[in-house]
Amino acid sequence: MDFKSSETITGPRAEDHLPHTAQAAVKIVIVGGFGVGKTTMVGAVSEIKPLTTEETMTQAGIGIDDNYGSETKTATTVAMDFGRISITERLVLYLFGTPGQERFWFLWNGLFEGALGAVVLIDTRRLEVSFDVIGRLEERGVPFVVAMNTFPDAPSYPIEDLRAALDLSEDIPIVQCDARRRASSRDVLMTLMHFLYSLTMSEART
Length: 206
Fold this sequence. Notes:
Elements: E1 24-31, H1 38-45, E2 54-56, E3 75-77, E4 81-86, E5 91-97, H2 108-112, E6 117-122, H3 131-140, E7 144-149, H4 159-166, E8 174-177, H5 182-205
Parallel strand pairs: 1-5, 1-6, 6-7, 7-8
Antiparallel strand pairs: 2-3, 4-5
Helix pairs in contact: 1-5
């Protein structure tokens, strides 16, 4: 019996194929509180069409989710965001954006597994949502850099004041970024890679 399907099976898009020159792949997580711009950053910097798991926010989240400072946000990540960027012809970063709402934090353990480092996105209007995020990274021993996402109405503070407020050591880089812009987001990732390299060199000297 001949069987014909009306569905066409297609493979990955040509632009999604891993570059043939790639020799090393690194897993990076992008973390932060609710509404700080994690999905935006992954989407802006990814060279492939990003995978997102955003769902529309409903009445069920009222009283559970803290959306202070992001009241106009209508969707939220419920599992992860995923993207990819080639830093050089040989080095590829796989980006995993974590859900920001605390009730989805149980998913973080799997996302952190095998991660070489992390970017902590912060909103200076709501620094308090970053405390637990940074604490989790420190508990797991995941190296990280901090990136201040520049929202239009967000206050600007001196780097050292932010470092003190977040209780960060002097060696952890703090940079400013616009998560909507690819070049700015890529600069953050490069800062992380340089930081990870410096840590590797320090360990090699000891």
